[in-house]
Amino acid sequence: MASITLDRLSKRYGAVTAVDDVSLEVPQGELMVLVGPSGCGKSTLLRMIAGLETITSGTVAIGGRVVNEVAPRDREIAMVFQSYALYPHMTVRQNLEYALKIRRMPVAERESRVGDAAAVLGLESLLDRLPKQLSGGQRQRVAVGRAIVRQPAAFLFDEPLSNLDAKLRVTMRAELSKLHRRLQATMVYVTHDQVEAMTLGDRIALLNGGRLQQVGAPLELYDRPANAFVAGFIGTPPMNLLPASLGHGGSVLEGAGFTLPVPASLEAQARAAGGRPLLVGIRPEHLLPPGREAPGPTAPLEVELDIVETLGHQSLAHGRLGETPLVAILAPGDAPPPGSAMTLRVPLAALHLFDATSSDRLAA
């Protein structure tokens, strides 16, 4: 396996910049997830690593070798696409061995590699079936198996689970995670689904508008988002972001329908922001209903409930602070009926502050 290094990588289509000056290091054996909204440049970035897109500027190195001018077939990478791209007239066995066959690999070696991949992915009983005789999950495993038999330096996955139903996606996420642990392979995985990113990645690289927003372990992005975009993208439901300003000499945060004390850990950062507009970030799970306490000081928020979504193990309470939307995650019995008013409490230690102009987080 090999590391992947991107150095100031950019891709422009005329006046449109799809990828803008991205630098990223994927160490050997790491599963790096590229995540972001549709059109953020993540698939374009992956295709430049694979050699399927030309590079406007910057370099791609695989295993320390710059591969900008190297043909895709010679980059020692294997790519798994959103579409399974299986040959419909070939059996599973023939699909798995096809890339080895055109390389004129000896029959014994081909059979050994196909057998190993089939064992890893649970395909032994399906080797003589055609793709039309397989379920979606089985076809996806065959697509992954075609990559495994090549024994590449790195694996590239371009939204491989997006064609599967919700239940099967959960199962396949677990299968891919186990596969990565077993192979100890370098993998770059593209998705627009932040749940996939959080559950699969050793690290996450979050992109928006072609630019890298933050790189780090999943919980690092969740607990310490670099800016308001990261805070609003990572998490289900996403973080509540409430417009506010400093009042009473910088001791409180004032917004439409709420007043909160400035957390002691953020007093210096809030004062340094001066009179600039701020965003107060509150995770939905940190909002506490009456009767539930948290360590440390808390402050009340008077919320008008609009909708309550019951999910069985929890309820999502959608309400308003003045005219600002707010979502809270509550236990099923803690949410009153829609149209009610309720007082939620927020632990001050759980507050995040962002500069509303730059969107950067004011870190303690």
Structure description:
The model has no long low-confidence stretch (mean pLDDT 91). It is built from nine helices and 19 strands. Helix 2 (92-102) packs across helix 3 (107-121). The strands form four sheets. It has a six-stranded mixed β-sheet, sandwiched between helices. The chain has a five-stranded antiparallel β-sheet with strand order 13-12-11-14-19. Helices cover 25% and strands 33% of the residues. Strand 7 (154-158), helix 5 (166-183) and strand 8 (187-191) form a beta-alpha-beta unit. It has 364 residues and is α+β, with helices and mostly antiparallel strands.
Q: What does the overall shape look like?
A: elongated
Strand content: 25-35%
Question: Helix fraction?
Answer: 25-40%
Any low-confidence stretches, pLDDT <50, length ≥5? Answer: none
Number of helical regions: 9
Largest sheet features: 6 strands, mixed
How are the strands of the biggest sheet laid out side by side?
A: 6-7-8-3-9-10
Termini, distance in Å? 39 Å
Let me know the number of strands.
19
* Topology pattern, helix = H, strand = E: EEEHEEEHHHEHEHEEHHEEEHEEEEEE
How much is the average pLDDT? 91
Radius of gyration (Å): 24 Å
Based on helices, strands and strand pairing, what is the structural class? alpha+beta
What's the quick description here?
The chain is α+β, with helices and mostly antiparallel strands. The protein is 25% helix and 33% strand. The strands form 4 sheets. A 6-stranded mixed beta sheet has the order 6-7-8-3-9-10, sandwiched between helices. The chain has a 5-stranded antiparallel beta sheet with strand order 13-12-11-14-19.
